[in-house]
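haha ok so turns out i had the wrong file open the whole time. this is the CORRECT one, sorry everyone. sequence first:
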Amino acid sequence: MRIRLVVAALVSVLSLLVGAAPAHAGGPGLLSMTFNACGNVCRHGEVDLTASNIAYQVRARGVSVAMLQELCYSQFLGVRDRLARYGYEAIFATGAKGGHCADHDRAHGRAFGIALLAKGTLSGAVAHQLIGTSPVNAEQRMVLGATVRLAGRTVFAVTTHTSPSGPNLAAQMAAISRWLTPLAGTRPVLFGGDLNSQPSDDDLDPFYATFREANGDRSEPLTTFLPAPRKIDYLFANLGRRGAVTSCAAYSDHCMYFGLFR
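then structure:
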C-alpha cells in the first residue's frame, strides 16, 4: 500500500515539515472541528444555506482549524468566501464527482471532496490519493494536509475521508499511519476527519498510540454519525487534550465534532 501524490505540492512533504516551527507549550488552546457535511447526498448541492451554516459555526465558536468532508466545490467556495473577511484561509482537494453538486450551482461543476480551513495562514498544501487494494468500495479517496500558522503556534493539519469498509479502509488507514506517526515525533500534528472506523477497531490502534483523541474515551465515545448512532469521526493530535463536544442536527447524517487541545 502506498500514498500517491496527485496534485503538485509547493514543496515536498519532508521539506515542508522540516521548516515548520514547533507549537509553544504555553500557547492558547487549539479548537478544532471536523464535519462531514453530506453536501451531495443530504444537501443536494445546495450552496447558500449550507455554506452560511458551516461558516457561522466555525466563526461563532472561534474554531482555529476546521476539516470538512463530502463537500461540493461550490459549497467550499461559499464557506471560504464567507470566512475570508474574518482571517480564515482555505484549501480544497477533489476526490470524486458528486451527482447533485451542480443542482444549485452549475458554474463550478460536480467536483466533490475535502477541505481545510484555518484562522491563520496555510502553506505548502499537499493532497494525496489513497489507493485501494480492492475493487469493492473503490471510490477515490483523498488526504489533504498543510502547515497551519496560527496565533502562538504552528501545526501540520491533515484531514481525510476514508473508504467505508473492507480492505480499502484497512490499507488507507495503515498508509496514513505510516505517514503521520514518524512526523508526530518531530512536530505538532493535528489529524481528523471521517475515518469510517469505530473506536474499538484495530485500524485505529496506531493513532491512539501516537496521538490523543479529543473525545479521549474508546469505551463510551460520543456519537458523531446519526442514522445508526456511532462514532466514526475523529480529531487526533500530539498535544494535550482538553475535551470534545458534538453539535447534531438533521442538517447532515454526521454531527459537527469539536475538539479542544492545549
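Residues 166-184 form the longest helix (19 residues).
again sry for the mixup
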